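Quick one:
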Amino acid sequence: MIDRCFLAFLGAFACLVLASANASAHPHVWITVHSELVYAPDGTLTGVRHDWTLDDMFSVFATQGLAAKTKGQFTREELAPLAKVNVSSLKEADFYTYATADGKRVEFNEPPAGYYLEFNPKDTVLTLHFMLPLKVPMKAKNFNVEVYDREFFIDFSFAEKNPVKLVGAPAQCKVSVVNPEQMSASLSQQLAQLGADQRDPTLTLGSQFANKIVVKCP
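Output:
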C-alpha cells in the first residue's frame, strides 16, 4: 500500500481513498478532462493544457482538514499547497499524458507551468489546471494525445461538451476525440474483485480504455 500511495494520483491523498470503506473496486477515482492544444503564432505546437475535474467524493477527501476563511469554500491561495503536492505526484506517472507526433513519442518539460487548483462550492469538486510544455515545440501533421492511468486506478474521461480545443492553431488543423469502446460486463466484474491495494497485473487496461485526442494538419 505504501508503494501505491507514492505512485497514485495526488500522492498522499490517494491513501485516503485506499483507506475508505467504499474503495472496493477499480477504478477508485474519476476525472473529467478538458484539454487545449496551444500553438505559437508561427503555427508551432508548444504544449498541452489540462483542466481535470475530480469526482466529488475524492474532492471531499482531498479538502478535509484544509483551513478556509469561508466555510465550504476554498480560494486558489488556500489550495496552493495541495496543488503543489498534486503536481509533484503527477511526475511519477508521466502526468498520465502520452503524446506522439507523426508516430514519434513526444516529451514534455517539467515541472508543469501555471498550475493551480480551483474549488466549485456548488458541485463540491476540485479542478486541477496545468500546462505541459513540449520539450521541443514542433510542427506535425499528425499529433495524438492519450490521457490514462496504466494501472486503471483512475478513470479519465473527456467531457461530453467541448472536451478539446485548439488555441492559436493554423486554420487548416482539425481536432477530434476518439472514445474507447464500452467495457464488457465480464471485465467490469473482474475489476470489481480487485482489492484497493491491487493493480492491473498487465498494466494495459488504462491504455485500452483511453480517450484519444487526434489533431491533423496539412
